[in-house]
Amino acid sequence: MKDLHHHMAWTISGMDCPSCAKSIEKAVDRLPGIHAARISFARERLNTDFNPKEVSQDDIQKVVTGLGFGLTEVGDGSTNTVERKSSCCSSSQTVDQSSKASFTGDVNGHFDKLKAFLGGSTGKVLIAGVAFFIAVGLAQFNPVNARLYYSAAALIGLVPIFLNTLRAIRFGQYFGIQTLMTVAAIGALFLGEALEASMVLFLFLIGEALEQRAANKAREGVTLLLDLQPKVAHLVQGNHRQEISVEDLSVDDVIEVRPGERLPADGIVLNSMAVLDESALTGESIPRNRDVNEAAQAGSLVLEKLTTFRVTSEAGDNTLDRIIRLIEESEEHKAPVARFIDRFSSWYTPAMMGVSLLVAVIPPLLFNGVWEAWIYKALTLLIISCPCALVISVPAAVTSSLAASARRGLLIKGGAALELLSRAKTMAFDKTGTLTEGKPQVTDVVAQGDAAEMVRLTAAVERGSSHPLAEAVVRYAEDQGIDIPAVTDAQSITGKAAQGQVEGRNIAVGSTDYFAEQLAGDANIYAQAQELLAQGKTVVVVTVDKALAGILALRDEPRAEARDTLKQLQQLDIETIMLTGDNPKTGKALGGELGLAVKAGLMPQDKLREIDQLRSKGTVVMVGDGINDAPALKVADVGIAMGGGTDVALEAADIALMQNKLEDLPALIRRGRQTMLNIHQNVALALGLKGIFLLTTLFGVTGLWMAVLADTGATVLVTLNALRLLRSSSD
């Protein structure tokens, strides 16, 4: 008999990091009847496929809430609404009751907020911090009871971690980071190291709070993507116009989109020549002309005139929806980002606990050893195995490296990105706004007569237009110190040309296709136009009183530092490639100029395919700045966003270049390699010292005080070594 499959989606609250998501997935997946449990950490969404005859919704909910997370069924927006009725004769009583209800509601609301705050990561840090610093103050005035004070502070900090450990053990998560910290703290307390226990717990809670804050910022990227899609659409039915929810749109509906509004669904253009800004999807700043029956994608910005479309996508399945799903699915393709110490603890902690137990019981039971002596040795081993130095070895190096990078304007969102940077083999680049300036510039002026006069007349017609090419012409004229005259009777032939009267002359500016006849009449200018087009430039034609006056060439020029940056990366044995949505001719011209491989004409899903192919050669780094780059930034092992890019790209990326400098990329690679070398040194120091004192303890050479000294000494050495990253240069 075929299993029944039931799908349900839930919203989860309280996840601090991707490891939380994995814990929930594993716990839910253990339930009988669960076919699949998948979590999108970015959207805090749990999707489950299960057999309702074997497992119920309540069973799933109990597991998730039992782990300490909130769970709400997607689409469950029920609220308790109190309907209030009033009349003239009872208004004062109603107001009085309303005031009381409002006051009670405010008090309860504030209490709930306070409870949520104290139960959150920041609240836990605050409570543990206050307890720790109170203990420090009391210990200064009454040193005799210092251990008591620090023990109390440690227990306060340990409570939430210990409760999480119990929840994790209950659902099969025996040796995670919470268990590691619980064992370390209890061991330190048992051996009298209360100060160390309270300090380590306080620092651990700070790390958890910072990680949750970074996770919340990352989730905002998906929200920004969702905000690009309008909530309402203008439905056309015969002569009637109706505003409806985007969710109510169906395939073959006809909709109107006004200038300055975004297309709410994928569609087909129904009226002649739509001018669309598709930069949200392709990253290209130059608008595209879409004629009748050509496809347009959701999220495109309509320019210049009211445009009609026929919807071609189902609700929830347009281009923007698919990009969001790509971001969610890309989390499965990421390199593992579980913290190093959590992975290590999966065998280290139980192994050392087992060794300590064996040392305590086997010699007395089998070899007539003295119980007190061997228990003392076991406790000594336990403090030696206390992972304080290991716990701090990775984050100390990472924190130092992140702080040094932040001073350079490099925002790195965690140690996993640094680790992957150290192994980078390929760096892929978006074009517009990344390798180029992000806006077209006039590069060539070819005129029949006075070039400055032609530019002056052209700028007069183009002034007032929001088209990027028009703005580039006006900007060029202003930079040349040209006074731009007034224009009258200005007109726009959508997608083809602009014209107007300037000082009694009819000036027209348009595409080479629109003015093909005039252009063909002058062999010299025609040849130059073809040569400029071959260089990947956009060529516009200028006529005065219908006679050819000349041409202007425009292009989004490469950044001044691009060539040198790419050369440095290649010297670091990093292969470079450009992935762009621009046309192949433009991409090839720029790639040849900068000296890197090129793949052009790519949509977001095409970039993902290219990145997957590049991954076969090793770790891939993606550098971009646009919304269209967000999926690629997430799918790549490391995503780097330019600081001048969109908020979505910045939040989707692992690293942001806040000063928008390409030359920071080689420094990032060197920084990643330095950090990993430092981490390896730290781990070797921590484990090496523990190994030495493990042997000396078993042979009775060292005792408890030496174990404490070894553990403290390892922590100090690891910290000092990590601090070298603050002073080291990655230039």
Automatic annotation (TrEMBL):
Q: Which GO terms describe its cellular component?
A: plasma membrane
Recorded topology in the membrane: Multi-pass membrane protein
Q: Record keywords: ATP-binding included?
A: yes
* Ranges for domain HMA: 6-72
Q: Does the keyword Metal-binding apply?
A: yes
Q: Which reaction(s) are listed as its catalytic activity?
A: Zn(2+)(in) + ATP + H2O = Zn(2+)(out) + ADP + phosphate + H(+)
Q: Which UniProt keywords apply?
A: ATP-binding, Cell membrane, Membrane, Metal-binding, Nucleotide-binding, Phosphoprotein, Translocase, Transmembrane, Transmembrane helix
- Would you say which domain of life the source belongs to? Bacteria
The subcellular localization recorded is:
Cell membrane
This protein's major location comes to membrane
Q: GO: which molecular function terms?
A: ATP binding; ATP hydrolysis activity; cadmium ion transmembrane transporter activity; metal ion binding; P-type zinc transporter activity
Q: Which residues form the signal peptide?
A: none
Pfam families recorded for this chain?
E1-E2_ATPase (PF00122), HMA (PF00403), Hydrolase (PF00702)
Q: Where are the transmembrane segments?
A: 125-142, 148-166, 347-367, 373-398, 679-699
EC number per UniProt: 7.2.2.12
Instruction: Spell out the NCBIfam families in the cross-references.
Output: ATPase-IB1_Cu, ATPase-IB_hvy, ATPase_P-type
Q: What is this protein called?
A: P-type Zn(2+) transporter
Taxonomic lineage: Bacteria, Pseudomonadati, Pseudomonadota, Alphaproteobacteria, Rhodospirillales
